[in-house]
Amino acid sequence: MADIFDYLMWRGDLTLENSPLNAVDGMILARLSYLPFENIVDSGNEPCVTVGAACEAILQKPDIENKVLLKDDTRLMAALRDSARYRDMPLSGYVNELDAATQTQFSCITVGLGGNDICVSFRGTDNTIIGWKEDFNMSFVCPVPAQVLASRYVERLANEKNEKNIVITGHSKGGNLAVYAAVHCSSGLQDRILAVYSNDGPGFRRDIVESAAYQRVLPKIHTILPESSIVGMLLEHQEAYEVVRSSNSGIQQHDAMSWEVLGTSFVYVREVAAQSLMLDETMKAWIYQLNGEEREQIVDTVFGMLEAADIKTVDDFYHSKWKAVQELMKAKSRLPEKSQKVFAKALKLLWSEGNKTVRKTVKQVVGEKRR
Question: Which pTM was predicted?
């Protein structure tokens, strides 16, 4: 089945004037934010380079494979460079911040879409443990620093470009930031937002999705999840979502380059897979049994163990799994007694809720078969 690269090959010769922006474009624009634009695109709001020129500049860098964040980025840049649809889009406003002290990982870029339309693209979680910790912080605090920065970025851009209409997009945590920024804009700015794309982005706490501000922007939110979504099912969503078929399985479906495309649209299925629904039900039941303080203690405990084990990136863990596990066990034994008790309670609750969900699902399946 065709994917995003096929879309770029088949539709890449058509400009936005010939073929209007669609959800596949929304995902491609979200993926732009992951590219290493340092020293190529500046932080100002005036366009300084096009997509094609920026991609070519990055591709010419030595040791390029060690500079990109995601698999297939070099292939994607070559396709964008050669695409009439994308190569002349101007870039500006590149921001990339990583701060361990404030547990902040934030990156975004502005893309000109021609005419009066611009797009703000928010990067999802990168390879750093800091970035992942900020994601988990969302379970007990809102806003996290990246959400505040996203809201300020869009508000400032909209004020400086007051004649422009805005599309906001993001993948993974970037999808959450896109929705958060749209929700927390002034009502006047919300009127200028054309669409918000959250591509397998996590949701929010219940009080956020039930707020009046969220309801105002709800009709413009387009949430897209793969069949076996895990990240995108986290926390609460109130908007309807579409489910796309992926050529990958399990957590690997989070890689949007595996999402299947037909013409100008993703290939959609009726609902997310049963295992995703089970995981979602288990996680929500588990989280809601822990108060905010306990959630914070658990997150701080887990990431404190990672820090004590000198694990700074996901690659650090992946490339030395057994050693990393050994170091984590040592770090756990050095935790204060209170932290160890909270951690043990959390694991017990998680195990219990998982068993409840499995039993409930088995009963439902057996009941349906008897009918």
Answer: 0.79
